Amino acid sequence: MKSAVTVCLVPEARQGPFVFHDGLDAGCREAAALGFDAVEVFPAAAAELPEESLGRLLDAHGLGLAAVGTGAGWLRHGLSFTHADAEVRGRALAFGREIVDAAGALGAPAIIGSMQGRSSPALPREEALKWLADALEALGDRAASHGQPLLYEPLNRYETDLLNRQADALAFLAGRGLGTVKLLCDLFHMNIEEADVAAALEGGAGRVGHVHWADSNRRALGFGHTDPAPLVAALRRIGYEGHLSAEVFPLPSPRAAAERTIASLRAAAATRSA
Ligand SMILES: [Mn+2]
Questions:
Q1: CATH code for the domain of 158
Q2: How wide is the angle at C-alpha 208 spanned by C-alphas 207 and 210, nearest 5°?
Q3: What residue numbers bound the domain in which 98 lies?
Q4: Which of 114, 148, 180, 233 could pair with 74 as two cysteines, CB 3.0-4.6 Å apart?
Q5: Tens digit of pLDDT for each residue in 49-88?
Q6: How far is the CA of 153 from the centre of ligand 1 (A)?
Q7: If you measure from the C-alpha of residue 99 to the centroid of ligand 1, how many angstroms do you get, rounded to a whole number?
Q8: What is the pLDDT of residues 168-205, one digit of tens each?
Q9: How far apart are the CA of 108 and the centre of ligand 1, in A?
Q10: Domains held by the chain: number
Q11: Which helix (H) or strand (E) holds 212?
Q12: What's the CA-to-centroid distance between 90 and ligand 1, angstroms?
């Protein structure tokens, strides 16, 4: 498994669960200095991911690009795939396609999280799930043309009423034939929704595409009450080889959150021989 840390380029998300907020240059420099394998980037738009210059920056620091978030589509533009207005859904798809293409050109997958939206009086949940499936199919096919999966992230009940648990998301992906979509398992959301987080991870065998490595309180792992040992054991049992990516609050400081994350990953790796 590989380590990753989040770099947020959206000023409106400065209070959000991202470690570094001072641009790609600074974020990559800090990530590399602390020994991370990769960065996960949360851009305002695809134009913030120029293939050549970002590729050079990553290479210069020996970093991979773990994944790219699409949440700014919701946060900045109010776009979601399950908006009752077809025109807004169309713009959401266009935004998603641009991120999928920019990420794909850099060899990374895109994440569908907050852009999944939720049901509303104007759009009942069953209909919202249909629009979500259509968006995941279209963007998943697009991602596949870049040789990447599309990452779908179940969120906790306070953020969406569509799919909150991994097993429900897996059943949804299977039932709608969404073979190009993989799960993003976020340990913070799972801490709220799952009866047994390790079992839920294990249930995702073959479909876990990315992991958000966060503690129970959305701080760096080690600053809450999550015990990572059984979670790492479960991920090993299913042969997960992707990233453990710190999507956490930059508390008490970005550096301290990143250092705590690295320490938690080293401790997890050390349990291999136990
Ligand atoms: Mn997440």
A1: 3.20.20.150
A2: 140
A3: 2-273
A4: 114
A5: 999 999 999 999 999 999 999 999 999 999 999 999 999 9
A6: 7
A7: 17
A8: 999 999 999 999 999 999 999 999 999 999 999 999 99
A9: 16
A10: 1
A11: strand 208-212
A12: 24
